[in-house]
Amino acid sequence: MGQVGDTLRRAGYGTQGDNTRVENPARDLLWALFDQSTPVALGEVTAHCEPDLPELLARSGLVVLDGARLVPRVRIVRWCDLFVAGDLKGADSLHDDAVFAVSGTTSILENLRLDRPVKHALDLGCGSGALALRMASLADKVTATDINARAVAFSRSNAALNRIETVAVDRGSLYDPLQGEAVDLILGNLPFVLSPEQRLLYRDGNKPTEELVTEAVLGAAEHLKPGGVAQFTCNWPIRDPDAEEWVRDLAARTGIDMLAIEYRRRTPLDHTRNWNRPARATDPEVQLELEQRWTDWFKAQEIDHIGFGVLTLRRPATARSGRFSYFVADRLPEAGGGRQVDRMLRALDAPLTRNSVPGPVPHVVFQQLVHDGSGYDAMPAEIFSAESAGICLTVPPDAIATIMAVDGCSNVAEIVGPDGSGYDTLDEAYRRGLVTLD
Ligand SMILES: C[S@@+](CC[C@H](N)C(=O)[O-])C[C@H]1O[C@@H](n2cnc3c(N)ncnc32)[C@H](O)[C@@H]1O
Q1: With a 6 A CB cut-off, is 151 part of the ligand 1 pocket?
Q2: Residue nearest to atom 20 of ligand 1 (CA)
Q3: Which residue range(s) make up the domain with 25?
Q4: The domain boundary residue, chosen from 316, 349, 382
Q5: How far is the CA of 243 from the centre of ligand 1 (A)?
């Protein structure tokens, strides 16, 4: 399998070339075959790719030779610096145990992942193994676990495809394969979709997802070493008027730190349609029945909205009770957003005092000046971290000077002045990882 990865890499599969779009027929053929899941002519592949490629692909089981055509059996995507294989598109309508190469939520977790070297990392519900393979670059050892035997097989062959030898893949539910061992970093893009359904393993898991996510989060508290961090994609029920209640109660049960970031909030009907696209429904009556069943289920539990976000948990390095913060994001996270999360976690440890000396972090300020015909009015400013976790701070125009006075030399008392105005802005910027004490 490693040879296949080497060949794909040499062919530039999954790269865009430069701005002038360099001609590369081999790359285009591989793109059609593995990204678009389209059969390609054997003669074309032989003419443009390395001569032994068709045989290599057939031997590895990634394609079948069907007369004069190569027919893909898997989808392979280039994701970050990896090749990741999974089932062909639409496999979930054929198999309950479908495994996808990567999904949008895989990337959300990857973007929020803390970027520090660790000894032992765990990918819970590894699917294709994409997150485990990414963690291999910062962990001495990675354990990847899944209850789906097909996911275990994909994870193993994806490790081989990328010549990564430090990922051990074990079949089992949640933390069972760890057999009590504690780890430094856990990523869990587990099934999290709140619904009455119990059908698709990747979406619904092997038990009601609220139960699964709760067990995963409580289990993290038991399996993290001091200072260790766990991150989970998650849906949570929102009952008005307290959007944070379910998450706050869960955090209290763990007894460790939790930072909750809400990225989306949907009504039960929007949530239902998002996970059962009406456009795909062949029978409107079936779709209506499904929408009714899902929305009745939410109504019976008095759920007004469904939150989607990421829960980051950390076992404090010293013995103290857990701390909790909840943020509503303005955007999805970008690559490197874990750096902002890291600062937000550190802010839980050390509150800002009058003697603290905050320093700036790379950031962007968006502010509009509106001319009403007679002069400019400054609008509130939005401050985003570069490498953003999606969490910004909106400050009134007269408070932006406080943020701009952060220079890494002046202490808080000097920045906010004798009347202390501006302290709340500075403290909120600190809690949001937009200034730092490092
Ligand atoms: C949403 S998929 C994500 C897969 C992969 N982490 C990714 O990001 O592409 C969730 C995965 O969790 C697995 N899973 C479901 N229930 C599980 C359980 N109780 N323990 C371990 N894995 C489970 C599913 O088989 C599936 O592979």
Answers
A1: yes
A2: 173
A3: 2-73
A4: 349
A5: 26
Assess if residue 6 is contained within a domain. Answer: yes
Atom of ligand 1 nearest to the CA of 188: 6
Index of the ligand 1 atom closest to the CA of residue 187:
6
> Tens digit of pLDDT per residue, the chain (438 long)?
999 999 999 888 887 654 456 678 888 899 999 999 899 999 998 988 888 899 999 999 999 998 899 999 999 999 999 999 999 987 776 788 999 999 999 999 999 999 999 999 999 999 999 999 999 999 999 999 999 999 999 999 999 999 999 999 999 999 999 999 999 999 999 999 999 988 888 888 889 999 999 999 999 999 999 999 999 999 999 999 999 999 999 999 999 999 999 999 999 999 999 998 766 667 888 899 999 999 999 999 999 999 999 999 999 998 889 999 999 999 999 999 999 999 999 999 999 999 999 999 999 999 999 999 999 999 999 999 999 999 999 999 999 999 999 999 999 999 998 888 899 999 999 999 999 998
Residue 354 lies in a domain: no
- The verdict on 60 and 172 lying in the same domain is no
Peptide bond into 241 cis (omega under 30): yes
**Is residue 79, in this structure, part of any structural domain at all?**
no
Is residue 237 in contact with ligand 1, taking CB distance under 6 Å?
Answer: no
- CB of 195 sitting under 6 A from ligand 1: no
Which atom of ligand 1 is the closest one to the Cα of 203? 1
Q: How far is the CA of 135 from the centre of ligand 1 (A)?
A: 17
Which residue's alpha carbon is nearest to atom 6 within ligand 1? Answer: 126
Quick one: 51 and 146 in the same domain?
no
Q: Are residues 6 and 49 located together in one domain of the fold? A: yes
Domain end residue (candidates: 12, 45, 73) = 73
The domain total for the chain is: 3
**393-395: strand order across its sheet:** 363-366, 381-385, 393-395
125 alpha carbon to ligand 1 midpoint, in Å? 3
Ligand 1 neighbourhood includes 145 CB (under 6 angstroms): yes
Residue 182 alpha carbon to ligand 1 centre in Å? 20
